[in-house]
Each structure stands twice: as structure tokens, then as C-alpha cells.
Write a structure and sequence with these properties.
Blueprint: H1 4-7, E1 14-17, E2 20-24, H2 27-38, H3 58-74, E3 80-89, E4 92-102, H4 104-107, E5 111-116, H5 125-141, E6 146-151, H6 155-164, E7 167-176, E8 179-188, E9 201-203, H7 205-211
Antiparallel strand pairs: 1-2, 1-9, 2-3, 3-4, 4-5, 6-8, 7-8
């Protein structure tokens, strides 16, 4: 019998490293993650994201959150894909770590992004989950660089990137909540990558690689 992970191999991914697990976002996790995000991701007076998804009205938030993840599934193809993985720490859901890319078979690059529920911030999890994701992308998917970005007034995110080994790669000006804001562009290479201490255990990567046009 075919299950959904056979059709959408990203849902069958499991990446474990010590107390952390990154896994494909199935529908039950979509609901649980929406609940977690609705409890708060950042202070209301701040906006750390270039796309202000946390500004969605409360009565629309869960629907909008689910639609985004379903849209990522629907639009997934070898030429354009976004991989979002739920992050669990000791079995507890804490956030999401993702990467998006265009023409990956040619470019071998993509942009990482993440969020943590506020109750789980300040514990080193943001750094650890980024290290796990980058190790997976470099070692198992074939990335040769990974980009990221953070507004210049978001020192916590910039510190995480620096700990992982990202270096400055210019700035881009954005409109944010009607005002002007600069976003620092960041670049990570395998040579500069500062790995975590844990060895990765990976499940489902063979099917995922085929789904993005590798090992065909």
C-alpha cells in the first residue's frame, strides 16, 4: 500500500542528533506547530521575519499556517522546493527548521530559515537545530553553500548564524511594517561550517534525493 510519504518523500525524513530530531511535517504536526506558533514566536512589538507571517489575525492564523505548509507540498518540484522540518527536543515539539531553493541541481544552494516557540528560546536550541540541518544539507543532499538572512536589529539570530559559521554577505533593504529595515545577508560554506558534537542518524534520505532529481 502506498502512503503519503511514498508520494511526498519529504514527509518521511527523520534526522536525529543527540536530543534533537528533525522530521517531515505531517498533518498532525501542522496542527501542533500552529498551536505552538500561536502561543508566540517573538515579542509583539518586533518583526524578525521578512515575510510577516506572525502578524496574521488570530482567527485566521491556524488556517493560514496550514495553507502555507500545504502549499509547500503542492508546489514541490526538482526545480523549486522548500523543505520544512519540525524540530523536537527530547520528544517535545519546539519549532521548525527549513530551507528553500530554486534550480538546486544547478545552483547547489538555498536559504535557511527557522523559528522557535518563545518558551524554548535562550537554551541553545536555535544553534543546535541549525547545525543539524546544515550538516544534513551538506553531507546528505549535496549543498555546496547555504545562505540566510536576519534584520540588523535582530542580534540573537545573527549570533546563532555566527556560531554556525555563516559570514556577512552584504545587506538588502526591506519594507517592514511600513518602515525601512536592513537585512544582513549571510553565507555558509562547508569549510566554514562549525558542526555540533552529535553524529547524524538519517532516515528517508534516499527517497528524498530522488524526489529532487538526484540519484535518478
Amino acid at each position: 500500500m502506498t502512503d503519503l510519504a511514498d508520494v511526498l518523500p519529504a514527509l518521511g525524513l527523520r534526522v536525529r542528533a543527540g536530543d534533537l530530531e528533525l522530521r517531515g511535517i505531517t498533518d498532525d504536526l501542522v496542527v501542533a506547530l500552529a498551536d505552538l506558533a500561536a502561543e508566540g514566536v517573538h515579542e509583539p512589538e518586533r518583526m524578525p521575519f521578512s515575510f510577516p507571517w506572525t502578524d496574521t489575525a488570530p482567527d485566521e492564523f491556524h488556517r493560514s499556517f496550514a495553507q502555507y505548509h500545504w502549499r509547500c507540498r503542492a508546489d514541490f518540484s526538482p526545480t523549486s522546493w522548500r523543505l520544512n522540518l519540525a524540530v523536537l527536543h527530547r520528544g517535545e515539539l519546539v519549532g521548525v527548521q527549513g530551507v528553500g531553493t530554486e534550480d538546486f541541481l544547478v545552483t547547489r544552494t538555498g536559504e535557511s530559515g527557522s523559528w522557535l516557540g518563545r518558551a524554548h528560546q535562550g537554551r541553545g536550541l536555535g544553534t543546535a537545530m541549525r547545525q543539524v540541518m546544515c550538516a544534513f544539507l551538506f553531507d546528505h543532499v549535496g549543498f555546496t553553500e547555504i545562505t540566510s538572512g536576519a534584520f540588523t536589529d535582530n542580534p540573537a539570530s545573527l549570533r546563532v548564524s555566527a556560531k554556525v559559521g555563516y559570514v556577512a554577505n552584504g545587506t538588502v533593504r526591506h519594507s517592514r511594517r511600513g518602515g525601512q529595515a536592513d537585512m544582513a545577508q549571510l553565507l555558509l560554506t562547508p569549510e566554514a561550517f562549525r558542526r555540533g558534537p552529535q553524529v547524524l542518524e538519517v532516515e528517508g534520505v534516499e527517497a528524498f534525493r530522488r524526489s529532487i532529481g538526484l540519484d535518478a
